[in-house]
């Protein structure tokens, strides 16, 4: 291995360079410490890991295939585009890899109630699913605006037995759902396990979610050589692989209406338990974001991404709403795959750079979820009443 | 000795407990805050906790969330809050003022720049809710260098090892959160507060204030019997929310009733 790429992050207190850490009110500190200890024990326990792997294979349907999008690649006339098909997982997105791991952890810790925040609803659905699977009570916090624009997922969560709480404070999106989930957790900390859905939040969450999602990259490494994926971690130490992260450019980064803290060089700030790049005004107030994709409509980014940007290991770009929508339609028409709007951002960037690359070069896109949930949004944008 | 330390020491010598009211700066509008601070002092406030509005007040219940929203609708920034403290100081040189808020506005200004500006404005202590001791080394050191007391939270869930970590960094007083929850939540259980305070006080050299769930003279009296200071927030902010008519007088009157009850607390 190239020395330059040797990577050992985070430190014992969850810092990825200047990012990460634990920034929460005192009441939650003991719970986070307990979680860290229990998590470290669990992943060292062969029985726990065997059950996790069994569930991934038999309940989720892993490994997910890698698919060569030949027709689309030919039309674009450059690099070969491969898709890691997380959209084929049970529940329709990569989120379930993490919720299974965390639900098993909750059960191991004796917690009977789980809570989650959700933007697009994919993490909410994945949490409601595993709660039903393991017999746990489940409450999902979702911004009122997202409840309106992702209605199929709201109903799915209810079918699965979860309580969906619409959050009406602030911008009524993912950030506000996370605030409300934190408030629930601080109130019910003894009985409740908080399933965070992304590699963010206070330590140990960014590490824990990363580790449960590493299965995507580990599989892809076996399935292909020298490829890249959105879940970067397994590739971080692989020389010769370019890592590209795609953020939500919304109406365009120049308009200020976007959710692209890394691309726009946002200042470092503290929110939701972590230090990381964060969209804020001059007074340190968090600004409202915009993305056509509810799951990307968030002002911050996980601390590991911020660190990978700092050390230059990954590059970050933004894709606007209209570019993502074009990629959404193209994948539908040319490959017969309806992608999630979130994943469509990565697809759009692949479509943008593929023509600049040689035909024997390869782009691996993590197709993180399927687009069934986005059909009402797309129809509305096309002026169609369903 | 800082203004906070002097105030609390004098009360202790007098066998009395400090009354610490909280209001959010700029709520319901920036022009009223200084007047309301004076009204709190008139009602018997020994220290004032002034909330710094933040867009994402994760540790607060709906009442203080709305106070933050009202203040932010007027564009109230951390610098504006310092301006209000400076204005208050022109006519009150004695009452300590503690700013209570979240880390990001302070981070955005920078610890050093903030500490200088805060001291110049007459701020005595700062409590950043989402900055536990693990992440507060640099911040607390900077504050202390400028003579500002870093105030820390302790909770029912705090283990002994963490009490000691707080003791190492805290000065002025520590703020014991009486219940698991957000501000303005449920009512407190005095017996469990008393038990935890006895444990805390055996490890702490600084005075302990208790907040969360204190909403009337009776609960204030009960807490005063076991703590060094009583913090009242959401109940006062509700008064602010009820409208501007007679607001200053209402705050004074309510606080005076709390003060009177506390002074009858039996130790």
TrEMBL record, chain A:
The keyword Amino-acid biosynthesis applies. Keywords: Amino-acid biosynthesis, Aromatic amino acid biosynthesis, Lyase, Pyridoxal phosphate, Tryptophan biosynthesis. It comes from the Bacteria. Gene3D superfamilies: 3.40.50.1100. Pathway: Amino-acid biosynthesis; L-tryptophan biosynthesis; L-tryptophan from chorismate: step 5/5. Its EC number is 4.2.1.20. The modification N6-(pyridoxal phosphate)lysine is found at residue 95. It is an enzyme of class 4 (lyase). Residues 61-369 form the Tryptophan synthase beta chain-like PALP domain. Its cofactor is pyridoxal 5'-phosphate. It catalyses: (1S,2R)-1-C-(indol-3-yl)glycerol 3-phosphate + L-serine = D-glyceraldehyde 3-phosphate + L-tryptophan + H2O. It holds the Pfam family PALP. Belongs to the TrpB family. HAMAP family: Trp_synth_beta. The beta subunit is responsible for the synthesis of L-tryptophan from indole and L-serine. Tetramer of two alpha and two beta chains. NCBIfam families: trpB. This is Tryptophan synthase beta chain. It comes from Jeongeupia chitinilytica.
UniProtKB/TrEMBL annotation, chain B:
The active site is at residues 49, 60. It holds the Pfam family Trp_syntA. It comes from the Bacteria. Pathway: Amino-acid biosynthesis; L-tryptophan biosynthesis; L-tryptophan from chorismate: step 5/5. It catalyses: (1S,2R)-1-C-(indol-3-yl)glycerol 3-phosphate + L-serine = D-glyceraldehyde 3-phosphate + L-tryptophan + H2O. InterPro entries: Aldolase_TIM (IPR013785), RibuloseP-bd_barrel (IPR011060), Trp_synthase_alpha_AS (IPR018204), Trp_synthase_suA (IPR002028). Keywords: Amino-acid biosynthesis, Aromatic amino acid biosynthesis, Lyase, Tryptophan biosynthesis. The alpha subunit is responsible for the aldol cleavage of indoleglycerol phosphate to indole and glyceraldehyde 3-phosphate. It is an enzyme of class 4 (lyase). Tetramer of two alpha and two beta chains. Its EC number is 4.2.1.20. It comes from Jeongeupia chitinilytica. This is Tryptophan synthase alpha chain. CDD domains: Tryptophan_synthase_alpha.
